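PROTEIN DESIGN WORKSHEET
SECTION A - STRUCTURE
LENGTH: 108
TOKENS:
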């Protein structure tokens, strides 16, 4: 019997697809991002983006490269439509890393 999807119909805004990670030194690499909005700023009185992570997920390097995604700390995640936001690497490293957004989500 097929298993139900873990996050199906949970009402949270998600993005899965291509993106670009911009490193602090200006290098850019293509990644696949799997992201979710964790917090709707409209629901928090006196919301301050510096204190709250609004989005999070995982980024995976597309292709082979001599890049450690954990070095993008902080980095910028740029979406295909040009929207971008700062993030911190939270786990992993090498070709795959967890990430936690700083500020508004660049998707949704």
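SECTION B - SEQUENCE
RESIDUE ASSIGNMENT:
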């Amino acid at each position: 019997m097929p298993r139900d999807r873990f996050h199906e119909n949970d009402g949270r805004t998600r993005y899965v697809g291509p993106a670009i990670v911009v490193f602090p030194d200006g290098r850019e690499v293509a990644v696949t991002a799997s992201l979710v909005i964790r917090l709707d700023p409209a629901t928090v009185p006196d919301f301050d983006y510096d204190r709250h992570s609004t989005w999070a997920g995982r980024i995976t390097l597309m292709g082979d490269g001599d890049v450690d995604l954990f070095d993008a700390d902080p980095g910028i995640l740029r979406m295909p439509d040009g929207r971008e936001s700062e993030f911190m690497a939270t786990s992993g490293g090498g070709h795959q890393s967890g990430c936690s957004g700083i500020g508004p989500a660049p998707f949704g």
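SECTION C - NOTES
The radius of gyration is 14 Å.
The first strand starts at residue 14 and ends at 22.
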